[in-house]
Amino acid sequence: MDDEIADRLSTLHGRLINQFSLYSENDLRTQYHPDLSQLGWHLAHIAFIEQYWLREVVLGDDSSTKDFHQYYFPELIARTERGGLLDIADFERLQYHFSDAEKLWTELSRIQYEHPLLKNDYLGWFLIQHAEQHYEIMHMVLHQRAINTVPETRYTAGQFNALDPALPALFIAEGEYEMGSDDVLACDNEQPVHVATLPAFLIAEKPVTNAEYLGFMQQDAYQRPEFWSDQGWQWKLQSRSIAPDHWRQDGRGNWYSLSLDGPTDIKANEAVFGLSWYEADAFARYAACRLPHEFEWEAAMKADSMLLKSTGQAWEWCANTFFPYTGFQAFPYERYSTPWFDNKHYMLKGAGPMTGNSVRQPSFRNFYNPDKRHIFAGLRLACGS
């Protein structure tokens, strides 16, 4: 076992304490979006999960966790109830549990404690990835906090020009491509590794930009049902959306962004985000293209290391829903993936601006319902060859 895990856990814990201890108790307890838990609950949940796996599962000691299952296993408590839990704003208690987890991992490593979950340092990397995923979600919460609490302003936005969509130009040949991963960081839904046979296709060299999306908006695409699937059009009518989630207009009609820094100008060449799957699909139709299947996306990224460098500004919606690979086995617990194989969750690939390094793998499979807009998601175009 390796000190790297203890060091990375310590760095993550320090980042969580240092950043979120600056927020008020009201901020920690407020639910800023119906799909997102409170900031304080995420902090306490991370600490609980580390104690649960290291102490209760590996060592068989549930004395410090058994009374908290009902609060910190998300399936056992409604999001609306999480903000009232006593411990979620107690940073002294949080620091104690974080430090204890670091010491416990170090001790288990030093004595080479034998347990199946410790083989190849699996559990340590699992806990790092878990914390990094929640850290990203907490930034989604902060983004929604900014959207919901920034007061009306007379901000004057800098104008940027709309562009036509850049059509897919990178050719990926017909062939057999390896999908998934058997790396220690691979989640259960990334396994087993297998080969997919793909026809030739074209994929864009970068995600759709803000300027390209503005072009879609300026073509009145939100008012033109021919660009939308039937379900997408119904979503559009019900949501009344006319722009990405965080875009707003100033008095002259120019668009700007609401962010943690308040109102800011939109950078034309950066990847657009704040889109539902329905909006991503509609943009692809407007461009006379389509969204890539996740296998196409993964094959392209594994085939071209330079292409992989174009990711990271936004998660990228894919055409297909989330499904189990043939031979899938739930691990290390049933509910990580299995409940979401419902044909209602769509795939996202790549990474967003706050995605942790342990998640930034071409094989990583993210998944959300198609109406979600709070997840830093955009798109990349594809088409047949």
List strands and helices in order, with pairings:
Blueprint: H1 3-20, H2 25-29, H3 39-58, H4 69-72, H5 79-82, H6 91-110, H7 122-149, E1 170-172, E2 175-179, E3 194-198, E4 201-203, H8 210-218, H9 230-239, E5 247-249, E6 255-259, E7 262-265, H10 277-286, H11 294-303, H12 305-308, E8 314-321, E9 346-351, E10 366-368, E11 377-379, E12 382-384
Parallel strand pairs: 8-11
Antiparallel strand pairs: 1-4, 2-3, 4-12, 5-6, 6-7, 8-9, 9-10
Helix pairs in contact: 1-6, 1-7, 3-6, 3-7, 9-10
Structural class label: alpha+beta
Query: Helix segment count?
Result: 12
| CATH class assignment of the largest domain | Alpha Beta
The ordered H/E elements are HHHHHHHEEEEHHEEEHHHEEEEE
How large, in whole angstroms, is the Cα Rg? 22 Å
Reported for the largest beta sheet, the result is: 4 strands, mixed
Q: Any idea of the CATH topology of the largest domain? A: paralog of FGE (formylglycine-generating enzyme)
Q: What is the residue-averaged pLDDT?
A: 96
Distance between the termini: 47 Å
Share of residues in strands: 5-15%
